């Protein structure tokens, strides 16, 4: 099976600063690839390359087996790569339905006399949300009045509705409580089950492990480890991400201090 997206030895430098070095991973249809790391690990740089914001300096990026270099996020979107950033790219004062069709608005009329098809847009939003099992009572309410979890779910449903093949999620649960994080992760699983390849960027292994099929651990721009789910459990994943050797050394040092 040809992967939806594959990174081979990707590297990126900004002047003399190496942000990424020799990073490889794969995104398959119907699977979740989790990219984990602490602040400064290189997660943001990687997703900017995958989503067309930045070009890589080294290595190869493939989509559907063909080598690509995205000139812009629009070029990535045209190839089915949709990214939902932490700020969600929503307009808080606009209604839910208006945000759902933002950038892909249906119109009526011809030429310079075209107008926004409000009824059609509301129906697109309603159907797109219901297809993902998302119920929002009032599509006219400003999207800024929704909870953080609901806004994430709207953004995920929008990407799925408009034909994304690969869905990249940038820390979707970072600012959410336990219950809302669970809701978002449920829709991540739904997107996976609809055949999308999902890239979940997170610093929380307890959010990643239940939904992930493979795990890429980054540290200071390099690969700390790459595992299939069958190769690692959540305890070991947490330990590696937290720096197991450093924690063990710290525990020994603290024990000596306490004893003395």
TrEMBL record:
Residues 5-245 form the ABC transporter domain. This is Sugar ABC transporter ATP-binding protein. SUPFAM superfamilies: P-loop containing nucleoside triphosphate hydrolases (SSF52540). GO terms for molecular function: ATP binding; ATP hydrolysis activity. The keyword ATP-binding applies. Keywords: ATP-binding, Nucleotide-binding. Pfam families: ABC_tran.
């Amino acid at each position: 099976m040809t992967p939806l997206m594959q990174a081979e030895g990707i590297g990126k430098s900004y002047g003399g600063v190496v942000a990424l070095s020799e990073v490889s991973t794969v995104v398959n249809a119907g699977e979740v690839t989790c990219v984990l790391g602490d602040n400064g690990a290189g997660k943001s740089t990687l997703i900017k390359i995958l989503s067309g914001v930045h070009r890589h300096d080294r290595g190869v990026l493939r989509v559907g087996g063909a080598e690509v270099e995205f000139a812009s996020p629009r070029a990535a979107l045209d190839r089915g790569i949709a990214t939902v950033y932490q700020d969600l790219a929503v307009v808080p004062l606009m209604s839910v339905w208006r945000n759902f069709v933002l950038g892909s608005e249906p119109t009526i009329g011809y030429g310079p006399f075209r107008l926004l098809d409000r009824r059609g847009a509301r129906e697109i939003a309603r159907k797109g949300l219901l297809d993902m099992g998302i119920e929002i009572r009032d599509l006219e309410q400003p999207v800024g009045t929704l909870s953080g979890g609901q806004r994430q779910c709207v953004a995920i449903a929008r990407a799925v509705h408009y034909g994304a093949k690969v869905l990249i999620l940038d820390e979707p649960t970072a600012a959410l409580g336990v219950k809302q994080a669970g809701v978002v992760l449920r829709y991540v699983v739904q997107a996976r089950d609809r055949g999308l390849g999902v890239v979940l960027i997170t610093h929380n292994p307890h959010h990643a492990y239940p939904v992930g099929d493979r795990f890429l651990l980054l540290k200071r721009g390099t690969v700390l480890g790459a595992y299939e789910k069958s190769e690692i459990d959540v305890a070991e994943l947490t330990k590696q991400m937290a720096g197991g050797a450093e924690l063990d050394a710290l525990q020994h040092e603290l024990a000596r201090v306490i004893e003395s």
